[in-house]
Amino acid sequence: MSLTTHMYTAHGGAERQRSEAWPIRLPGPLPLDPEGSVVPALARTLIRRVPQLVEELLALAEEREVRYLDQVPAADLRRSVREHILGFLRFIADIADNTDNSGNPGNSEKSGNTPVHGDPLAVPLAWGHCRAREGVPVESMLRVHRLATQLLWEKLFDEARADSPGTLQRLLDESGPVWEVLDSYSSALVAGYRSAETDARRQDAARRDALFDALLEGRGADPSVAAEARVTLGLPAHGRFLVLALDAGGGDPGRELAAALPGHAVRAVWGLRADREVGLLELGHTELPRLLDRLSATTARRVGVSGEAGGLAELAAAYHGAETALRTLPPGTAGVAAFDDRLLEAFVVTSPQVARRLAQHALGGLLECAQEERGLLLSTLDSWFHCGCSAARAAEELHCHRNTVLNRLRRIEVLTGRSLDDDRHQLACRMALLAVHTLPLDAP
């Protein structure tokens, strides 16, 4: 079927016979006719018939079952469709009159046209923005636009054909440039729609971030905050909650969690705080030891894990626990630290000044030894404590003789000035070792 048949089949047999009698040429890649464009006059004729065109477009959209029509009040729908059609017609009239013979924008005053006030694309931009805010799918919006384009182009053909065969031919010759211009109108519609989507996402993200911060700051006990957390974040007011704190920049924490717990129903909400990625987890029926084991096997960065919290109101304390647990791991290392398993280390990192003074007071001159000797004596003392203060077992662990261990212990007593048989001094030395392993102590 030829293009001409496509164009005129809908107008009836008599009209088709008349059109086929005219020597109609398809438009080529030529610029607009030097004598001027016929589009502005045709478009202005249709502007006077806008109310009728609005009804025809609404009927056509209803016939084609465009779904979103029922979502918009009738008065708003007619107003927006009228603005769309009017803006569409003014746009093609203005662009056609502002196009010189080379197809480039020219001076509207030379053509005698009164330019559209402001940006001619303001109407489609606003129309697309409005449809997005109403929740209209972009596909439905573009479908109405295509129907409007089809209807108005047919009306332009009707007006040109009613005028003369020459006018119709000139309209065909100008169709290529005009359709290129109309493509910018469609682009403006989509741009307005995407702009509204971006604004909505930005507002949702800001609302989500504010709510996330409110929970970490201890406002989860507020009924309004809890209700919004259920709607916005999908978190119930009560449950088995956990907070994770991770060093930022190590990849997607959500994927890490999914890899650690395949097939487990753990709801997680993630946020960024300074140089930390923070996760609020609702564990459901997932066992905490299993989560810790799998995270330890899969993570490549530091992870601090809070103790379990029973509701949103306890998340602030849980967040503090997760941050404290993470700080018990030396920077630059990888591993998982559970707050409840590292309470002694938590004492150290939450009171670093006291912990450093304790280490200096308990270990004394040992910390002033050369690095090699200091490391050897500290590892011996650590193993001795770890082996229940047994020199023989410590010797096995250190792969040396029992007397070697005893000699090192005597050297430690000389450097510290206290006996390791003193229970209080033993406790101080144990805490001092924790401080040495956890905090960066100044070198002697």
TrEMBL record:
Residues in RsbT co-antagonist protein RsbRD N-terminal domain copies: 51-208
Pfam families: GGDEF_2, HTH_30, RsbRD_N
Domain PucR C-terminal helix-turn-helix: 377-435
InterPro entries: CdaR-like_regulators, CdaR_GGDEF, PucR_C-HTH_dom, PucR_C-HTH_sf, RsbRD_N_dom
Domain CdaR GGDEF-like per the UniProt entry, residue ranges: 218-328
Similarity-based family: Belongs to the CdaR family.
Protein's UniProt name: Helix-turn-helix domain-containing protein
Species name: Streptomyces orinoci (Streptoverticillium orinoci)
Source lineage: Bacteria, Bacillati, Actinomycetota, Actinomycetes, Kitasatosporales
